[in-house]
Amino acid sequence: MRKLEPKQNEESKRKRNQVILGLLLIFIMLFSVLGYGFSGRENKQNSEQKIKYNGYEFASRQGSWVLTIKETELIFSYNPTEVEKSNSNIKRLDNYYNKPLYISSEHDMAGAEIYNAIYRFVQRVQPACLEGETCESDELPVKTCEDNFIIIKKADDSNITQQNNCVFIQGTEEELLKVSDEFLFKMFGIEQ
After folding, report:
1. Domain span holding position 18
2. Same-domain check for residues 99 and 183
3. Does some domain include residue 126?
4. Confidence (pTM)
5. What is the pLDDT of residues 77-92, one digit of tens each?
6. Is 14:20 a contact under the CB 8 Å cutoff?
């Protein structure tokens, strides 16, 4: 049989238990935040690899390579030491600055890589079709090499060529992302 206690004793026990439980939760939360903070800092220091290339510093972050130029972060899938060097002469970024840029890409990731790197420097980036080529959509504008146009195509050999204002980036399915990064390194003047 349960012993009868005054209501005041029951109330004080309940409050005491609530305070103990609250302090225990605060203690657990505080130490988990501190533990996470210290382990996060340690992991970041250990996992961020850096390389220098032609005076530019690239930092490896979450599987990508990040280059910061004048407070602008450029994100690449590869760093300059991981791409093949070509002897292509490519127009620099100032030729695209504040002008419309058209892209046609047979490789979604390569097209997205180029878009993400240069969209803030051009007037706009828009998908388009090259005159004389088969077009996937009747709604896309048809452009020529008189316009700033980047064409990314799957091919057996990897190369980058500039014809007037058109840049043709070609490579195998596996290499197109590397070739696209090589184009960006040349366009930004990171690679000669």
Report:
1. 1-47
2. yes
3. yes
4. 0.73
5. 999 999 988 888 999 9
6. no
